[in-house]
Fold these 2 entries.
Entry 1:
Amino acid sequence: MRYEADMALIRHGMTPGNEEHRYIGRTDEPLSQKGREQLLTLQKKGVYPAAACVAASPLERCRQTAELLYPGQAPCVFDQFREMDFGAFEGHNYEELKADARYQAWIDSNGTLPFPGGESRENFKRRSLKGFQKAVAQCIREEVNTAALVIHGGTIMNIMEEYGDRQRTFYEWHVKNGGGYQVTVDPSDWQKGRRELKVCEAYREG
């Protein structure tokens, strides 16, 4: 039988900044009470699959989400899974930024311009994919059949834009807090450079 690895890509639960629609990237916020409650509700509904191996971003909101959804399973932390650095926009929301010409220019570029004092989309995507490649390599090396990656919305969007088996743009892969995708990796194809994630299920309603 051909060996395949099932992976859940899960966005962390809601934080106080998420509730206020703020750009929360490098800021190391914990989950909010509402975020914790939403995750536990989804878990009780059986949304999240079991995982033999759990990986996470080093930021607290991801580690806390992993601990809630996969208690007793210490996550393997990949620094490359950190969320994007939003630079001058970090910690602010639309209402606070709408009069800023730099923000309007970023909006007009459809989010392709680098954040002032922050990170470019290209650099963010490059490191996201590097982290994902490391995680997949570890799963293949250890012959892991089921894994969960508890990461950030932007990180998931980068991974799915690059490797998803459906042609969608970065923003079309967006998921809410607690949402994500269930995908399958074919290790044989992956190691031969044919790198594609078969999307089995999407759970967007976090």
Entry 2:
Amino acid sequence: MRGFFIWLSMSQTLKHQYSAEQSNVFALEARWVVPVLPYEQVLEQHSVIVQAGRILDILPSEQSKKKYPLVQVIVLNDHVLIPGLINLHTHAAMSLMRGLADDKPLMQWLQQHIWPVEKRFVSERFVRQGSLLGCAEMLAGGTTCFNDMYFFPQAVAEAATQSGMRANIGLVVMDFPTAYAHDAEDYVQKGLQARDDWRDSGLLRASLAPHAPYTVSDSTFVNIVTYAEQLGLNIHTHLHETHTEIEDSIKQYGVRPLQRLEALGVLGPNLVAAHGVHLTEAEMKTLAANGAHIAHCPASNLKLASGIAPVTALVNAGVNVAIGTDGAASNNRQDMFAEMRLAALLAKGASSDAESVSAAEALAMATINAAKALGQEADIGSLERGKCADIVAVNLAAIELQPCFNVISHLVYSAGREHVTHVWVAGELKYQKLQGQAGIYANMEPAELKEISTEWQTQLSQYLA
């Protein structure tokens, strides 16, 4: 059912029948609320009051009933409410390439498999449909906002708008031609023109997205910095993902990529650098001094054998680290619950410190840290009065989640995206999974998503045969 749907009454979870189209104020009455800020706080038997897409109040449920006696109430007796998860680095449209070229190192994966397929198939329609498929996966897993980087940004915007998600859309820039643009300036101008179409949207933002130091020249980086400063845009790029990238930079430019970007003026508080796997102590201090952010993508880095990012050292150096999934072609899932768990476990194993990246820190990396990296911490990333009502309900009643001694620990180490039951974006219910049934999207039809997947799988399979 497209456009709106009714929140059905459930004996254990929904106290009142409620339509998002018919009321401006409602209360979420939950067993627990984990607001993320204050850090490590768990509120028991609390309610979140939502009005006009923002959080009006958070208070004990008994007080809520007295203070707001007439509002519609959604009772979630077995649930924990958390802020919507924020995927700080992905390529949503690459969902159509999931499993296309597995078990290959990065440059072989790119040059011999991904780039040839993109050259043959990537179009505005491909990107729109692939992004829609990616949005469906992310939304069902509790992700309410994603930081994207891909061709045809207008198509990504259309998919995000249909899904109802919040998105920071990267205006990708390279120095070589693709089906999208023929040179760096063409990429920039097409991206900025697309941005003009959604710049007034409440859910969509844009950033300049030079693909990587190995695909972007010095002059292009300088132009991007100028545009970013003039337009107040973030910069989103890949950085220090592999040893090969660093070695090639030294051969071509005489310096490591980070040193090159620093000299070009790219480093700053508006920079989101994806991966940051191979960094020296001095480079981490440089990132911290410039206020730059790292999007840690643990699963993708492992799968492509790129390495393990020094997250513990980065955090100790004062760098803001958040979490991304990377695209489904290199992960092969856009699952922020899996990434949180992996990020915490990898940090402990790599540092030999069991206290490194606690569950609370991992949750912060997937929420408020990512919001800070996008410059949106005033609106998203935590459950606080006045912030946008991007809220996820996670059901902790399943037998595999029993017993529960620590809710935050459970969210990171025990629960998964399959336990997400409700997802609100700006106070509107965009996804709901009733007990024993498939999930329901507000604006997407599963049959349409299946048709998209089948069509492109057929076309790509024929090309690869």
